[in-house]
Amino acid sequence: MLIKIKQENKNQRLDKFLVTKLPISRSQIQKLIKGSDILVNDKKSSVHNFLQPDDQIKISAKKIKELTTEKKLEPNKKIKFKIVYEDDNILVIDKPAGLLVHPTEKMEPDTLVNGLLAKYPKIKNVGDDKLRPGIVHRLDKAVSGLILVCKTQKAFDYFKNLFQKRKVKKIYTALVHGKMERVEGEINLPIERAKGKGKMAVKSIAEGGKEAITKYTLIKQFKNFSLLEVEILTGRTHQIRAHLNAIQHPIVGDILYKQKWVKESLNLDRPFLHSAILSFKNLDGKKLEFKSKLPVKLSKILKQIT
């Protein structure tokens, strides 16, 4: 697909111009620009490119088709999950490592959402994303522990607001490489997706980084490892993993965020990161707190290094 810029479109910003030309959202357009699926004069462009007459915009028709083809979630009764708490509006689930919370663009059929749809069909209309019904926050596929799911739109709107105001307490247990220099600390480093690497990287706000704040407290110091209690005040993708790696203390078992100096191998096939505590005020004003024990596999690692 090729669009040639006319004089009347001079100095329009690339992404804003394309919103008027394509049947997809501005955020989807920006993603295509960053992924080189939209080119200007056969070159990769920035979102903030101000167009000039005779500029030629080349757009991947295949990508547009993928984004505009309706995707349908299917219930999957085979997906099993442990319910820690349930009322008329919410669920608190103890998610095992290895289970995706919701499908990606590949439309995986075996996610937590597919299992939820099988058990709670009405949840399909909850939320603001058809591919993430009921999901108001998430855990990485490789991370285990507590996650909140909303069964009603009223609950979704309420908890979305609570998360935005940082009134939901999320505490994780993490085992990291190396000895901590301080017993407690705060990591305040903006992060953004790294180009072509499938992970997040520390970037300034000017470079497109988004605010990310992580607090940690040392629970126990081992010879070459540190057991931490980690609280996140923001909810960025891979936030804990990216932040701890940025301060030279990568999480044990994390093959995506690691340092070359790490030599110890504990034969762990997942990151040692577990959502251990989830606390919030429910719709009725009652404060609830839930705790999840470390999975057996992670407990064995602690015994191994003690």
How does this model look, in words?
Belongs to the pseudouridine synthase RluA family. The active site is at 140. This is Pseudouridine synthase. It catalyses: a uridine in RNA = a pseudouridine in RNA. Residues 12-74 form the RNA-binding S4 domain. The protein is an alpha+beta fold. Strand 12 and strand 13 (225-232) form a beta hairpin. It has helices spanning 14-19, 26-34, 61-68, 112-119, 153-164, 239-246, 296-305, and strands at residues 2-4, 38-40, 43-44, 56-59, 82-86, 90-95, 144-150, 169-177, 184-188, 191-193, 200-202, 213-221, 225-232, 273-281, 287-291. Strands 5, 6, 7, 8, 9, 12, 13, 14 and 15 form a nine-stranded mixed beta sheet that branches. The protein is globular. The mean pLDDT is 93. It folds into three domains: 2-68, Roll (Structural Genomics Hypothetical 15.5 Kd Protein In mrcA-pckA Intergenic Region, Chain A); 82-164, Pseudouridine synthase; 169-305, Pseudouridine synthase (2-Layer Sandwich). It has seven helices and 15 strands. The longest helix is centred in the middle third of the chain and has 12 residues, at 153-164.
What structural keywords apply?
Pseudouridine synthase; alpha+beta; four-stranded antiparallel sheet; 306 residues; 15 strands; 20% helix; single chain; Structural Genomics Hypothetical 15.5 Kd Protein In mrcA-pckA Intergenic Region, Chain A; 3 domains; nine-stranded mixed sheet; 26% strand
